[in-house]
């Protein structure tokens, strides 16, 4: 896939650092403020970019809970969401134009 780094060492570094951020999120979450959410999101982004297995599991979660998946994809600014939104806007414009 296009988002997977080509060099295995870079992929492993991204995967390990993402997992560490996910594990660190509850510790940061205990501090005042919303820091744990951002640490978890950053770790999730790194893991999703580095692991095909994680992307497949993420797709399964999005199918089961589409509202949660859509919200998370918008926050992560994934290209698939941008394409989907552009396609939806285009079909809405066509529908409004024919009426």
Instruction: Give the count of helical stretches.
Output: 5
Low-confidence stretches: none
Shape: globular
**Content-based structural category:** mainly alpha
SSE order and pairing:
Blueprint (H helix, E strand, L loop, with lengths): L7 H22 L5 H16 L1 H13 L1 H11 L2 H20 L1
Helix pairs in contact: 1-2, 2-3, 3-4
Question: Descriptors for this entry?
Answer:
99 residues, mainly alpha, 5 helices, 83% helix, globular
Could you provide a short overview of the structure?
With 99 residues, the protein is mainly α.
How is this structure best described in words?
There is one protein chain. Helix 1 packs antiparallel against helix 2. The chain has 99 residues and is an all-alpha fold. It has one domain. The chain is built from 5 helices and no strands. The mean pLDDT is 82. It is 83% helix and 0% strand.
